[in-house]
Amino acid sequence: MSGLDPATGRRPNGAAFTIAGVLLAMGSLLIWQGFAIPDKGGYAGIGSGDVPIFVGACLWCLALAHAWSGLRQSGPAMPRQQPVPILFITAGLALQLVLLHPLGFSIATGLLFACTAAAFGKRNFALSVPVGIGFAFAVYGIFDQLLKLNLPAGLPETLIFGG
Amino acid sequence: MSTFELLLQGLSTALDPMILLYALIGVTLGTAVGVLPGIGPALTVALLLPVTYGLDPAGSLIMFAGIYYGGMYGGSTTSILLNTPGESASIVTALEGNKMARAGRGGPALATAAIGSFVAGLLATLALAFLAPHIVKLALVFGPREYFALMVLAFVTVSAAFGDSTMKGLTALFVGLGLGLVGIDGLTGQARLSFGVPQLLDGIEVTTLAVAMFAVGEALFVAAQGEAGAEKVHGIKGSVAMTRADWARSWKPWLRGTAIGFPIGAMPAGGADIASFLSYGAEKRMTKYPEEFGHGAIEGVAGPEAANNAAAAGTLVPLLTLGLPTTATAAIMLAGFQQFGLQPGPLLFATEPELVWGLIASLLIANCMLLVLNLPLIRLWVKLLTIPRPWLYAGILLFATLGTIGLNPSPVELSMLLLFGVLGYLMRLYGYPIAPVVVGLILGPMAEQQLRRALSIAQGDWTTLVATPLSAGLLILAGLALVVPMYLRWRGRGAVLAQLAVAED
């Protein structure tokens, strides 16, 4: 699903074909998985595997429609996209994903906070990282301690709230 | 018991001090988050879902309803003071409201929006209360085929009937339907598309998908536009109070907006956007001051605002009585119900009457609270609009991930958040609607179950789907909703439909 390349935004006509390819792949996956299910459908005549096959076939049709429209008309002009902010935000989310369990909620989420702020132009990490960790820590306090949400604890959380 | 008695009983539940506190917290949070630019009602509800995890079902659902109504009020403030084209349900409000704010009449614009929302919310909630028992009775004769036909109709209206392209809407819908197939099949227990990953057996969480597509996708999209997208906030100059002339020009649009909005919300015919757009069109035709339209006509704020709140209450009719979410916001609300093992539908009225009627009664109370919160305290909310964008979006992403982590702190869930966030960004970039993905994800498996049940009952005979006039009629309606817009677009009349795009809820 994430196989689309943002860079194709400059060639909108190509974008339709890329999207068609992705839909084709997704449809094929559904059809393959649908046929892999050994199910005869019982009384209904359709079983677990048949709806995936139907949805997959519809995705194939939509892929065809995309390819057809890509041939016939060029897409609208795309506003120019800045790649750096996107990298900052995805990197922040990835960092949080990796660090959440080893370092706990506050540090991992604080780094996501700082990365997002950087994506919107606040590149001063000496300020945004402590602010982010402090804010995330306060959120941890409210949600984990008060609202009984189960958030992964790290060193700071264990030290203050005793895990 | 009559509806009136049930409603009174609900009021006594809702007037419990703890419940009142929950409702107050709900409307306050809902307004605060709804005011933030770029956050519509669907995202407000999705972001605040984790706040309710730790509470008991009654309190949490009532807080939730407050959040929903609060988000609707907050959104109008944003679109009047800050011309944000992204705020779907209030987008029409922005047409006239922002012009009024530019002309220094922001105060009366906010007042007519708030009072209009209040009037509409009150009337529509009462209509919900009196209509619901009848629909529940009707629902008892519904079999699987009628439910299936209703769901097909909801699929078509949310994806293909409005917006600028049938193809894009259907693509979004089928991506959602495909994602909905992941996990264990509810009828046979067969694992599908889980590829041996245990976390996928539960299926894809609606909240994860909604938060990823709306919050992460939106943050990526706004960030990728660079500095160009920043908009100027128009402060409130002068008094918030409406003049006698403002009142005289507002009260009819409020009532007309309610009359247009509620039925549209209650039938699966698109969400609040459609209602507010139609109300705007009606006001424009009926006004005595046509020259003011496009330059800040108060009717153009009063009508659509009333319509979108009435539609919001209207979407609760199919949600509560049939368990059928017809908008992205309703889909997330359904997820909120399901976290407590409650399945909205006719049965809920029989098994948990205190809960249902308490919820409806507390909607009335939440409405009154919102009027108080939004009129005298409006200047406070406006301050939220001045939060610098880096901190604002950093905070949004923090809360977006909080919901997912609180639900299930697994790397698989967070990877999905990242993946769907990027997908949401790309869909926004190429002009695909987001709401059909969310509705497809939650409604898809329900529709599949009803279809297979209907076919099981008929021993595999497909004509059973059109064997009753009701199911046949609904399917024909769905077919028309698919074909007529395609024909209109083909004839070059698509511009109107594009304006009606269901952007978010």
Radius of gyration of chain A (Å): 23 Å
SS class of chain B: mainly alpha
Which overall shape of chain B is indicated by the principal axes computed on the Cα atoms? Answer: globular
The parts of chain A where pLDDT drops under 50 for at least 5 residues are: 1-12
Tell me about this structure.
The complex is a heterodimer of chains A (163) and B (505). Chain A has two domains: 6-72; 83-161, no CATH class. Helix content of chain A is 69%, strand content 0%. Chain A has six helices and no strands. Chain B starts with a helix and ends in a 6-residue tail after the last helix. The model of chain B has no long low-confidence stretch (mean pLDDT 84). At the A-B interface, helix 1, helix 2, helix 3, helix 4 and helix 5 of A face helix 8, helix 9, helix 17, helix 18 and helix 19 of B.
Write the layout of secondary structure elements.
The complex is a heterodimer of chains A (163) and B (505).
Chain A: H1 12-36, H2 50-72, H3 83-103, H4 105-119, H5 125-146, H6 155-161
Helix pairs in contact in A: 1-2, 3-4, 4-5
Chain B: H1 3-14, H2 17-35, H3 41-48, H4 57-81, H5 91-102, H6 106-140, H7 144-159, H8 166-180, E1 183-184, E2 191-192, H9 206-224, H10 244-266, H11 272-286, H12 299-322, H13 328-338, H14 346-351, H15 353-374, H16 378-384, H17 389-407, H18 411-429, H19 435-457, H20 469-490, H21 494-499
Helix pairs in contact in B: 1-15, 2-3, 2-4, 2-15, 3-4, 3-9, 3-13, 4-5, 4-6, 4-12, 4-13, 4-15, 5-6, 5-12, 6-10, 6-12, 6-15, 7-8, 7-19, 7-20, 8-19, 9-17, 9-18, 10-11, 10-12, 11-12, 13-19
What descriptive keywords fit this protein?
heterodimer, A: 163 residues, mainly alpha, 6 helices, 69% helix, disordered N terminus, B: 505 residues
Short description:
Chain A has 163 residues and is an all-alpha fold. Helix content of chain A is 69%, strand content 0%.
